[in-house]
Amino acid sequence: MDFFLDTASIESIKSFQDFGLVDGVTTNPALLAQEGQEPLRQLKEIAAMVAGPVSAQVVETDPERIIKHAQKLARVADNIVVKIPASTAGLLAAQALRAEGIKLLVTLNVHAVQTIPFIRMGVDYVAVFVGRLDAAKLDSTSLTWDTRRVIDQLNSPTKLMAASLRTPDHLTNAVAAGIHVATVSPAFWNQVFANPIFTSVEREFLQSWQQLPQELRRGYESWDDEEAG
Ligand code: E4P
Hints:
TIM Barrel; single chain
């Protein structure tokens, strides 16, 4: 299973690469807009610093225009995967773009049924929007399980991506459902590792440790065997 970083921030990509959490990157128009930079230049920079797939979304809704924009984005770098919407326009465009060998990620899926024609076609990725569904009080867990079942049932090479992840349970449930990729935002990872229970137990253990006299602690603490005696 791969972890992609859901961001268009160069700084975040650099720091999460150090943690080994950047097998790829997903951008979208909102994420690029947030950076306030020239988006095409930003995308080129991201594609150059990431070895894995970097997705870039079309900003068109009409099939012919989706095709033209996708062709342009695909020329930015070899590792670009073009994001197209899970709509009928996206479906028309997907057929033409697949014939040209352009790698595709079908985005904005909020029901498994939406993914079926794309999975049958064998697009590279379908992304299920877990958090958005949850926010609408709909069943995000079955979305992921059902989509994975569709992929297996149709014996398709399409990879299942969990996107729009908001809570720790979203990620754990998605992994349990058999996703191939989770795209995770920097804010999500920060939230996971700032769990207050973890922080307080860690602090408690270290405080207890300090109760032991220093001369007794020394051998255990020291990484220099001579100093430890
Ligand atoms: C996925 O590729 C998307 O960029 C992403 O997860 C967006 O979801 P959100 O806007 O609900 O965070």
